[in-house]
Amino acid sequence: MPADPAPRAHSPGPRTRMDDLTVERVLRVVEAIPAGRVVAYGEVGAIVGVGPRLVGRIMGTWGSSVPWWRVTNSYGDHPLLARALPHWEREGIELKPNGLGCRMSRYGADLEQLRADAAPALAELETTAEAEAEAAAGAESISTPPVHSTGRSSRK
Questions:
Q1: Cα–chain-centroid distance for residue 13?
Q2: What is the mean predicted confidence (pLDDT) over 42-51?
Q3: 3-class DSSP state of 73
Q4: What is the pLDDT of residue 140?
Q5: What are phi and psi of 80, to 5 degrees?
Q6: In sequence order, what are the residues at sequence separation of 6 or more whose Cβ sits closer than 8 angstroms to the Cβ of residue 126?
């Protein structure tokens, strides 16, 4: 039997947990994508700190309330192109010759600008999450009575 491989050091990679805060962070970045521009799942993920598959999963589950048609794969192809096309036409996004999506080189958003545009909404979200965590911790310490020991055993 081969020996177990050496343990690998944990490297801080993208967050993979789909919690409420992560969902909100993804949706807020998507809301900040300007009309007429697109961003790849991985680019949204890089801003938020998650992987592209998680961004896709979040968009598939909760993305209907944001401009979902502005998020594509890294080639500019859209998985729901037939539904995205009316939005793209309104925003001036043209199909590339293969008909599967748009040219990222032409319609890709300026990522530094997107990061800057999304920063206030993300900061507000972090502040709100921190305040809620502090309030929950405070409420927990108030509602949980301290346990006092009498120093005697309950056994006889």
A1: 14
A2: 96
A3: coil
A4: 60
A5: -120, 50
A6: none
